[in-house]
Amino acid sequence: MDFLVKAAEVFMNLFQTGAKTFISWMTDIVPVVLLLLVAMNTLIQLIGQDKINALGRVSARNPILRYMILPFVGSFMLGNPMSLSLGRFLPEKYKPSYYAAGAYFCHTSNGLFPHINPGELFVWLGIAQGVEALGLSTADLAIRYMLVGLVMNFFAGWITDFTTTIVERQQGIKLKTKVDV
């Protein structure tokens, strides 16, 4: 009988923990993301939808702009996860690749720009503490991490372009390569 009671307690504890996590998201993450969405949409309205779509068209022409510059600017200006929403201005074909590059960049720039992804700052701080214990500079590490990240994130986006093409062929579909206005 004790086993059944213990199993029921563990089962209920699982759901109570899930509920606590959900409530913490509703009071921490969700309002921030909501306000970032409002800020981004306000900025888009101030700049003008046509200019933002033009940025998407220009960025779509060149993989370096698409997977290196746009994710960098988006991450720096908007942080994670809002930087990923810039992909909405790209043609459908390039959205998966932009997401791949942008998602990685939100991690590889934490050393220099902790505001981009504060939720994962503990990873950077743990590594930095080990580097400092060796008597080395964390600034060197942060710069190298970001530079290597820029290159590797570009390749993540570019390789995703190739896999998207394979999936298109496999599924018998063709994604648009032009921005619909």
UniProtKB/TrEMBL annotation:
PROSITE patterns recorded: PTS_EIIC_TYPE_5 (PS51107)
Tagged with keyword Membrane: yes
Residue ranges of the TM segments: 22-44, 64-84, 142-167
N-terminal signal peptide: none
BP-aspect Gene Ontology terms: phosphoenolpyruvate-dependent sugar phosphotransferase system
A Pfam family it matches: EII-GUT
InterPro entries from the UniProt entry: PTS_IID_sorb
UniProtKB keywords: Membrane, Transmembrane, Transmembrane helix
Gene Ontology, cellular component aspect: membrane
Domain of life: Bacteria
NCBIfam families: EII-GUT
Protein name stated in the entry: PTS system glucitol/sorbitol-specific IIC component
Species whose genome carries this gene: Planifilum fimeticola
Lineage, highest ranks first: Bacteria, Bacillati, Bacillota, Bacilli, Bacillales
